[in-house]
Amino acid sequence: MRIEPTTPQTILQLKKRQPNWVQRFKNFALVEKLNNPVGIGLLVLLAVIVAVGTAKFGFVFGGLVVVAVVGLPALCAVVGYPQFGMVVLLVLAYGLFLLGRLGIPGPMGVVADLLQAALMLGTLVSLRRHNDWELLKGPVSTMILVWIGYNLLQIANPSAVSRLAWVYTVRTVAIVLLSYFVFLYNIRSIKFVRLIFKMWLGMSFLAALYAFKQEFIGFSAAEETWLHSDPEITGLLFIGGHWRKFSIFSDPVAFAYNINMAAIFCIALIAGKLPMWKKIVLGIFAATFLVSMLFSGTRAANVLVPVAVFLFAIINYNRKVLIFSCIGAVGLLILINVPSGNPNIQRFQTAFRPNEDPSYKLRKFNQERIKPYIYKHPIGFGLGATGGWGKRFGDGSVVSNFQPDSGYIRVAVELGPIGLIIFCTLMFTILRTGINNYYRIKDPELKMYTMAVLLIVFAYNIANFPQEALVQFPSNVYFSLDVALLTVLYRLDKQKQAQLAELNKRLTLT
To answer: Both 234 and 326 in a single domain?
Structure first.
């Protein structure tokens, strides 16, 4: 038997052949799937710890164990696989309030915040590793950072009504916009864009069907309990002997706006170059969305589709669009003026006669009353100075008891004229970038998606005047997604055109 001499080189080779601890762990956990003495022993030990801990400390201990066993791997998956995390975030944002009504305990809003924080952490790690900071540059990114920075500086506002109100408000007003950078950096393929759209339309369709259930079958026991839990809720949702429907969302306004955006998206795609069967499906979806939206009783939402179609006709002017717009305008005029005893139709018609609406007159009066206070405070009264947080943490002044009923008015009161200028500049920059990118994009599919997303962003801006459209789940998350897509789709088009140019170059050389 021959014995090979032992040298430093042979020792090094033997060490390289031996599996390191990472390979041993993968073999232990993934290949063998804990089906070995050590794995069985660990599972038995874990079962004993859970049983004893739950018996001694109750369900709190069991919940902590579940968080550790499920939450930590999920957190690692979100950080390591951002596309998975984005899908979870978009689904969670849509079903956030439904989970609470189903009786699932825990602060689901905090879970959504932690999920967004994990995605931002994963994005920062990837940015640092690959040095891809160039992807995050641009006028929209700059304005978003300016807006977020201005909101953060409001903590030092000497005229702030409450510092604690700032803590509760800054998350939904500014911090959530950081999701824009997560979407902007991590959406890298048209396949993933299609997946997002299909998933969103699917969830919207289910939400619309649930609104039909509420309208014609009734509310669930949990929903009935919530509706009668507070006289203020009853007063807002029970109008003219008819309950306003909210589907799976927090309130009828959030439901109407989100389902309207899905309808606008479908209408924009119907005008694109798609097979007929897809247009028929999209038409069914759009009709379902628009009818279910009427159940919400949200008058401000009724004008969003006509306004979006008007912008579509301006940007994409041609004979077919002109004919379609004229037909739609005639149909809208008939629907506005046709006599009806249906309370949903009647409420729809009042949206186009605002001067006859007492609530609109009251809003105009309140806005005129608050103007002198706005002019005297150029940086505003601080985040959370108005609305619910102002009433809870404020000093009882006119501002604290003021209900803005408008995203723009809230910005003017809480952040002052300077904040309103920054906010309007941000929205202008977003729309300008989206319109420019639409005209630059050459791929028909990407061009179609850009138009649809652009119309949604424009509709959100219109919706933000009569209501606070950009601060509630899921609108705040999906608005960040839509703004990011206006740049992502253009980037994907540039990559595709570069690949086609390279392919043509190679074919020419051969």
So the answer is: yes
* SS (HEC) of 431-464: HHHHHHHHHHCCCHHHHHHHHHHHHHHHHHHHHC
Mean pLDDT of 49-63: 66
Lowest mean pLDDT among 69-83, 88-102, 171-185, 217-231: 69-83
Contact by Cβ (8 Å): 184, 141: yes
317 and 442, same domain (yes or no): yes
Do residues 427 and 461 make contact, with C-beta atoms less than 8 angstroms apart?
yes
220 DSSP 8-state letter: -
What does the DSSP 8-state code read for residue 248? T
Please say which residue of 95, 127, 159 terminates a domain.
127
Of residues 145 and 230, more confidence is placed in: 145
Are residues 276 and 343 located together in one domain of the fold?
yes
> What does the pLDDT look like over 265-278, one tens digit per residue?
999 999 888 999 99
8 A C-beta contact, residue 174 and residue 396: no
Mean pLDDT confidence for 112-137: 80
Is a pLDDT exceeding 80 seen at residue 188? yes
Identify the H or E element spanning 57: helix 37-57
- Last residue of a domain, which of 81, 98, 127? 127
How large is the average pLDDT for residues 381-403? 80
Residue 202 covered by a domain = yes
- The answer to whether position 2 is within a domain reads no
Contact (CB, 8 A) for 203 and 91: yes
346 belongs to a structural domain: yes
Same domain, 363 and 457: yes
Asked if the structure places residue 33 within a domain, the reply is no
Domain count, the chain: 2
CA atoms within 13 A on the CB side of 107: 6
Calculate the alpha carbon distances from 118 to 72, 96, 122, 178, 375 in Å. 11, 18, 6, 12, 40
DSSP E strands: which ranges in 64-208? Answer: none
Q: Which residues contact 263 (CB under 8 A, 6 or more apart)?
A: 285, 286, 289, 290, 293, 305
Range of the domain at 294: 136-502
Which comes out higher in pLDDT, residue 12 or 113?
113
Total number of residues shown for the chain = 510
Q: What is the pLDDT of residue 494?
A: 92
**Sign of torsion over alpha carbons 24, 27, 33, 36:** negative
Query: How confident is the model at residue 8, as a pLDDT?
Result: 54
Q: Which two tokens stand for residue 71?
A: 């939450």
Name the DSSP class of 243: E
Give the predicted TM-score (pTM) of the model.
0.83
pLDDT, one tens digit per residue, over 295-347 is 888 887 888 888 898 888 888 876 666 676 677 666 666 665 666 666 656 66
Residue 440: pLDDT band by 50, 70, 90 thresholds?
Answer: very high
Q: Which residues of 463-488 are buried (b: 16+ CB within 10 A; e: fewer)?
A: bbebbbbbbbbbbbbbbbbbbbbbbb
